[in-house]
Amino acid sequence: MAGLWISRIARRLTQPDTFDRLVSPAIADLQLESQRTRVGRWRHYPSLASVLMWALLQDISRELAYVFDADAWRTVWTRAAAWALIAAAINWVILYGVIANVLNQWHTSEAARQTILNGVIFRSVGPALTVAMIVAAYSFKRRDAARTVSVVTAAIALAVTTVGATYLSTILQEPSRHALDEAGRAFYGSAIEVRRAPLPWQLILNAIAMIPFAWLGVVSSKRRGWPLALSVIVILGTWQVLNFKAFPVYAWLARVVPGLETLLFGTYSVPTNLLTLSGLILLWRGIEWIVERPGLAHAE
Amino acid sequence: MPSISGTESLIIELLRDGDRFGLELIEHSGGRLKRGTIYVTLSRMETKGFLVSRQEDRPAGAIGLPRRMYRVTAYGLKVHEAYLLLREALALKPAEAR
C-alpha cells in the first residue's frame, strides 16, 4: 500500500491532531490515487512532502508558544537561568584562579594580566548554556512527561541561542585571548599557536553538540533527590575526565578515518561532546536497564 | 471580522453541492486548486469555522487511511455570500472604467 512508510514517519513527527487534520487526508488521497494510476501516485509525493513540511512548521510554532508561555517562563526558564548563572560563576572562579596562576608563572605585565583576566568571564558562556540546556530539558520533561516535542523545541531554541552567544563571546574575549597568546608566546618562544575565531560551520556544530545535554536532562528527569544528583555527577564527571587533553579519541578516530584528526581539532571538541556524552548516557541507560529488568527484580 | 481568500471561496463554491474529499475538490476545480496547498487551506478553513470534516465510513477490513470528507458550514456559506457581494460591488462596470 502506497504511503504506509510516510504515514508511519509522519505519525511519529507530528502531533496527533495535526496528523489527523492535515497529513492523514493527503496520504488517504495518495492511496486512492495510486490505486487508479501509477503516475498519479508520483505526482502526489511532492505535495505530500510540502504538506508534511507545513505540518511540522505548524507544530513547531504551536510548541514554541507552549515552550515560552508564562508558566514555562516561571517554572522552567527562571530555574534554567538561575542554574546557568551558578554554573557561569563556578566556571569563572575556577578559570580565573587557573589562569591567574599561569600568568604568575609567566611573569606577565600588569596591563596584559588585567586584559586577560577581564576576558575570563566570557569563557563562562558555554558552560552556562550547557547547564541551561540540561535544566530546561529536565524541567520540561517533568512538566509534562508525554510531550517530548517540548524538549526538542526547547533544545532547538537553546542550540540557536548557542550559535549567537558563542559568536558574541568569541568577539568579546578576542582582546583577552590575543593577550593570552602573546603572553604565552613571550614565555615559550614561538610554541603557542594563535587560535582563530570559529567559522560559521563550527558554530553550528557547537550548537548541535548541545543536543546530548538535552538528552541528559531527559534521562535525569525520571529521578529526584540524591539519585538524580548522583547520576548527573557521574555522567558529567566522567565526561569531563574523558574530555581531558589525554583523551585518545582523536588519535583513535584518525586511525580509522585518515585526515579526520585535523577536522576534529578544528571543531573545538564538538565530536568529543557528542561521542563521549552520548556514549556515557547510553552506558548509564544500559546499566539501568539491566538492573531494572523484571526478571532480576523478581529474583531479588 | 472574518477574512476569506479567493481559493477559500472557490472551495466553498465546490462544496455547495455536497461533501467532498480533497482529491475530488482538486479534480472538480479545473486546475485552480493544487495538491500542494489544498490540505493546508482546508485545515485553515476548518480552524476559521468555514468547514467541518469527518472521516469517511469504511467497511470493516478496508486497508489504507480513511479519507476526510469536508462540508461547508452555515457560517462559511454566509462569509462566502458576503465575499461574492463585495466582489460584485467592487467590480468595475464598463461605464465606470472609462
Question: What does this entry show, briefly?
Answer:
The complex is a heterodimer of chains A (300) and B (98). Chain A is mostly helical and 300 residues long.
Quaternary structure of the protein: heterodimer
Give the low-pLDDT segments of chain A.
none
Listing every helix as H and every strand as E from the N terminus to the C terminus, the arrangement of chain A reads: HHHHHHHHHHHHHHH
The percentage helix of chain A is over 70%
Bin the strand percentage of chain B.
5-15%
Strand order, largest beta sheet of chain B: 1-3-2
Order of helices and strands of chain B: HEHHEEHH
- The number of helical runs of chain B is 5
Q: Please report the total strand number of chain B as a whole number.
A: 3
What features would you describe in this structure?
The complex is a heterodimer of chains A (300) and B (98). Chain A is mainly α and 300 residues long. Helices cover 82% and strands 0% of the residues of chain A. Chain A has helices at 4-13, 16-36, 38-67, 70-106, 110-118, 125-143, 148-172, 174-188, 200-208, 211-220, 225-242, 249-256, 260-266, 270-291, 294-299. The model of chain A has no long low-confidence stretch (mean pLDDT 80). Chain B has 98 residues and is of the alpha+beta class. Chain B has helices at 6-15, 22-28, 35-48, 74-90, 94-97; strands at 20-21, 51-55, 68-72. The radius of gyration of chain B is 16 Å and the shape is elongated. Chain B starts with 5 loop residues before the first helix and ends with a helix. The A-B interface holds A 1, 3, 7, 21-29, 31-33, 43-44, 46-47, 50-51, 54 and B 21-23, 34-37, 39-40, 42-43, 46, 53, 63-68.
